[in-house]
UniProtKB/TrEMBL annotation:
Protein name: GNAT family acetyltransferase
Statement: the UniProt record of this protein carries the keyword Transferase: yes
Keyword Repeat in record: no
Residues of the N-acetyltransferase domain: 5-143
Record-level Gene Ontology MF annotations: acyltransferase activity, transferring groups other than amino-acyl groups
Organism per entry: Secundilactobacillus pentosiphilus
Top-rank taxon: Bacteria
Keywords: Transferase
């Protein structure tokens, strides 16, 4: 079932599962050493699909005068089932509901920019390295 919750609304089990799958994806699977948990979690909306464990996840938060989202993932055991597209639709819906009219920008890993382009995102500028991984800034018209 898809859920959108603020940090304070998350249960301890949901928070544990979110951190577990984020570390498994971004630190272990992608072999990157960095501080995965940060202060943005405290102010973010957390969008996820849960079936005993978190199977898809992203967080949304205000940044400067706009809104951004990140930590977008699908659990490896559930990839290839269309959850990434469903997740992005839920993220965009939550942005429209909670951050209507704000500019939307993300820093996407270069290898997935085509995925975001299918949902109306445009690449801006040149790729750059963030946490040892090539990223590109992408923007979307306000919702």
């Amino acid at each position: 079932m898809w859920r959108t919750k603020s940090f304070s609304e998350l249960s301890t089990k949901e928070l544990f599962e979110i951190y577990r799958v984020r570390v498994a994806t971004f630190v272990v699977e992608q072999n990157r050493v960095y501080q995965e948990v940060d202060n943005d979690d405290l102010n973010a909306l957390h969008v996820f699909d849960q079936d005993d464990h978190i199977v898809a996840y992203a967080r949304i938060y205000k940044e400067n005068q706009g809104v951004t989202f990140g930590r977008v993932l699908t659990d490896p055991k559930h990839r290839g089932q269309g959850l990434g597209g469903q997740l992005l639709e839920h993220v965009l819906s939550a942005i429209k509901k909670h951050y209507s009219g704000l500019d939307i920008s993300i820093e996407a890993q270069v290898q997935v920019q085509g995925f975001y382009q299918k949902y109306g995102f445009r690449s801006v500028g040149e790729p750059f390295i963030f946490n040892s991984t090539p990223h590109i800034k992408m923007v979307h018209d306000p919702l």
